[in-house]
Structure formats: C-alpha cells, structure tokens
Amino acid sequence: MNYLDDFRDPATAKKIAAAIKAITTQPWNIMEVCGGQTHSIIKYGIDQLLPDQVNLIHGPGCPVCVTPLAYIDKALAIAAQPNVIFCSFGDMLRVPGSHHDLLSLKAQGADIRIVYSPIDALNIAKTNPDKQVVFFGVGFETTAPTTALAAYQAKQQQLDNFSLLICHVRVPPVMQALLDSPGNQVQGFLGAGHVCSIMGYHEYLPLSAHYKIPIVITGFEPVDILHGLYLCIKQLEEHRYQVENEYSRAVKEQGNQPAQQLISQVFDVVDRSWRGLGEIPASGWALNADYDAWNAEQRFAVTAINTLEPAACRSGEVLQGLIKPAQCAEFGTACTPEHPLGATMVSSEGACAAYYRYRRHQHV
Amino acid sequence: MSDLKLNCPLPLQYEQIVMAHGGGGRLMQQLLDSVIQPVFSNPLLNQKHDSAVLNINGSRLAFTTDSYVVKPLFFSGGDIGKMAVCGTLNDLAMSGALPLYLSCALIIEEGFAIKDLQRIVESMQQTAQQAGVLIVTGDTKVVDHGSGDGVYINTAGIGLLDEHVNVSPAQIQVGDSIIINSDIARHGIAIMLEREGINFESSIASDCADLSGLVQDLLKAGIDIRCMRDLTRGGLASGLIELATTSHHAIEINETALPIHQDVNSACEILGFDPLYIANEGCFALFVPEAQTALALSTLHRHPLGQQACQIGKVKATHPKGTVTLQTAMGINRVLDLLSGEQLPRIC
The domain containing residue A100 runs over which residues? Predict the structure, then answer.
C-alpha cells in the first residue's frame, strides 16, 4: 500500500465512518494519546465524520506541551551561558519558560541550533572542540532511543565537550495516572503507534486488564485513526477490554528490542513532572549514574532550578480531556500561538494550537 | 473546576526581532502593521500589492524592490543571483507590468570568494538577458567577516503597464476562478534538503523562474486578469490568506486539486511540514472571471512554465469574508490560517 494515498483515501475513510455509526449504540469517550494523532484528527476533520455519541478526548501525547516549566528554564539557563552551542528540536524553541523562550534568547545572541537528530548535535560537538555542545533530549519513547544512542556514543568516544539535558517521558504511566484521576472520563484509548513501534505493546496488557479498558494501538493516517476507533468502539459495545494492534505494519508486540536495550543501558526510570498534570511516578527517564559526566544538569549546575508549575493551568484540564480548547475563556483571545499562555498552544501537535489553526473560525 | 484559577505562564511579547518576524506569517504581518506600515502610510503603499503602480506623465509604471538572503547561495535549480532577478521580475509581473529595468545592490561579506561572486553576477545577467531586461544601476558594499552570510542582494525593478491593465486585490470578485501555474512547495523543500544536509534520495529542484513571459501571454490572449500573487515566502496558503484579507473576499480551494510533486510530499511528511506553507519561486495564483477559465488554462498550458496549470478554487460569496477555506479530500472544510512564523520541524 502507498501510505500517502491509500491510508488517506476518502472513500475508505467514509466507509469506516459508516461502519462506526452502524455499531455505536451509546455515548463513548475515547482518548487518542498521541499528539500526532490529535493533529491528524483536526487537520483532516476526522471527528466530523463520527456520530455525535463518539467524543474524542485529546490526550497528553505532545512532548512539547508536557515538558515541565523547570526544564524549559534549565534549558534557557544553559543556553544563555557563554561558549555553549545549545541544540534542540525545532518546536521546543517557542515554548515559553518563566520569562522568555529559546527563540528570544537566540535573538539576543545565544548560539541555539535546530537539529533533526541528537546525532547531529554530537557531530556539532566533534567539529567544535572549543565549545560546549548541549542537546535538549525531550519527547516520548519515540525520541528516547536516538538520545540514548547519542549519549552512548559520546561515552564510547569520551567526547567531553558534549552533554545532554534530559527530560524524556513515558506513555504507560501517564495513561495509568489519567485512569486513576477522580474525574476520569476516558473509556477507551487509541494507543500511540510510534511509541509502540519502539516499546511494543506488552506494557499495555496489564493496564487494559486491570482497568477493564480497550487499548487499540493506532497509526496516524485518517484511515488508521478511523479503523482504530472502529476497533475500540466495537470492544466497548461488546464489553471486551483488550489490547488490539491496528498499526501492525509498524508495531510488533515486543517492539524494537535493540532500541529498548539502549534505553535501559543509558537511562533510569524516574518520577517526572508533566506540564499541566503534575508529578507522575515512574513516568520519565533520566541519564543513569554511568552517564553523570555527560549530564548537562550537573555540568552546568542547573539541578537546583525547580520552577513550580502553575497550580491550576487549564492546559492540564485540556490534557485530561475535561474541557475542549475552545471552552477556555482565553482561547484565541489572550492565548494564541504567537503568545501562548499554556504549552498546549505552542506545538502544532498541542490540542489548543491544532484547534486554533483549524477550528478557530468555528468556535470564536 | 469551580475554584479554578487561570494561572498560566505570562504571555511573551517580543521586544527584539526573532527569526519568525521574517517568516511570512502572522508575526511578520504584525511587525509590518504595527511598526512599518503606519510610519510610511500612503495610498500607494496601503494597497499592499506586490508592486506600486505609479502614474507619471500619462505613463503607468510598476515599481518594486526585494532583498534576497538564501542559504545555500547555490542550490539545485538556481542560485541567489537567479532568484534576485526572477523574484523582482515576478513582483512586477504580478501587477501586470512588462518588466524593463532592474537595479542590483550587493552586500558582500569580507572573505567571500570572488569567483563565487562572479558566478552570481553572471547568473543575474543571464537571467536578465533571457527576460529582456537591463540591470542599469547598482551598488556594492563590503561588511566585516561574520556580519553577513556571504552575500545579500537587493534588486529593485520598474516595468510598464498597458493602460487597460488593472490587476490588484481590489479587483477580485465573487465567482472568480483561482488558477495556479505549477506544482507547489518545490523551492522551499529543495533549499531545506540542501541546507540541512538531509540525505534524501531525490533530486528536488527549486522552481525558481521568471514568470513575466507567462503573464504577458495571458494579457495578449485577452484574459481579464483580476489579480495575481507569486506564492513565495509563506507559500500558497499565506499568499491566498493575504489576498482574502486585503480584498475582504472568501476564498475556497480544493485539496485534491493541488498539484504537489510526490517527492516534495514525502519530504514534507518526513519533516512534519505542510506544503501549503512552503515557499515557491516560480509559482503564482491567478484570479480570472469564471467565463475565462478555459482560455486562461489553455494559454498557460502552451508555456513551459504553465504546463501543470490548473484551477484550484473559487472566490465564494457564502463563506466568512476575508478567509481561505480548504475543502479536504475527506470532504470537510477547514479554515487556513497564517502561521506565526516559519514552520518548525516537529519532534516526531
């Protein structure tokens, strides 16, 4: 199959949408976990193809949105130091810290570079031996293996002008935290396909069994998402609660084992704060003690920066599915992608930014 | 939820220029509208057209200027010199003018190789010659090493307008057909793949080209051109949004009608970019009365730069005014919005 065409085929999509309508007998709240899925849903208008009873909740799967304020402030503190080349994925540059963002710092003269892979940052370190090169490692299980590889190679090569600021996060603990929260409304999950292509889906089996909730590992194209929703609703309607794999062309149950080994070799599982959600046990990765020498937090003495998250930012409610973006009074007025009040307005994968970009004229 | 406090981080107001202020998006519009336009404000500038149209002693002259900064200076499908000539020719052509004369101002960084400079000016001359225009005045400045990216070029141009030609956003009418001459997003992707050193098994070349000949063909064929816009920085979406805003009309385009080269589409998928917002250097949107759609298309198809020409949408009466709506392949309408600045590659 040509995935650009066949998995976006309108006729197939409409056929699946009709099948969803045919099996849906009652209201269901389903969360797509991954920000890439949220972006697709809003971009293609997939939610508009669904029956009214199916309510999609946009989950906390946007790495830009959930990176805590403390780590943005740490990044800013490191990037502002002389002799530092600070390397980051592009969309982290616009995330507001306590006082400014990396783009403003760049405008003031800091050497901040957009890279596509941590290995690019490693190469920048090799070609600039007189500079300290720092990579900002954020994101889920999808980006963690390449960050781990960069750390591993830096250690192998004893590259002492390279270090990493790590704020990686893990999906299963946040799903569990959402299910445990008193206001939880989620009745079924679309699992994050790319995360599972790395980690496999065995981690989700106990979650699904314990909470009696269907989890359908789903891809990112319109046909994938509709098919994932169909499988999820079918389980709910039939009172089944299983892990199913819609994205079998990319995901195997055991995932990418070399990538997993690399992760466990370089990182320790740690408790992590999520922007808008607070601290979630065992929900993150940090460099383990073998990599202390490459830990930018220690090298640049920023461990003490511990900016507290605002107590009640509404982006947390958006991330938990308690409100839709347009239900926030600031949406599209005080809070826009140019001047985001919260992180969900920053990245194109953030629910608020996706609504602003594609739905603003319908809601405001 | 009842005792909820809105306690989000404070909004950021940029006090310095950031790269996004030059990205062709909303931040750039805000900079123009708040800092530049109000100071220079006059009826000619306020038309917000690609060229100003000047009435001088009975002659109608189009006048425009543009500065060129591109990395790398030489790329597949062109170089900064070719771009600097084509870009200004195209700005003149978009007002319906026949380009006549150009200026060339060079800002060169200390240490720049003279043989590269020679290559660039020769490319400029060759492009100008092919277009039948002369580069008649210029300026050269050298700046300290580290104060520039090799070379920056500014060109200004003047062209002549026939008396019956009246091309501007104000001429757009409900029912007009919207046509583009070629596939979109090739220039931006070609530059990006070279700049970022991404190994991508494709030879996507920039579409950098002089469109003035194509426009002259349309005028000669008797097409009543309402408006044109070359779809440079910010791409098709930003160009159409600006026209919709300036003309207070609603534009609807059809996703399935948009020609996009398969390799360009694949590169956009990998990098997380939307081709609708990627720059072009040889692609323009043409607004013509509905009745002239077929004639405009057949005229375009006869020119090498118009062989992929197709209708992509219409000016509608029904939608909210000043907006551009994309009808997606799924049959759903979504409103296109200006991006804040340049598109940033997504994390995953």
Answer: 65-170+255-299
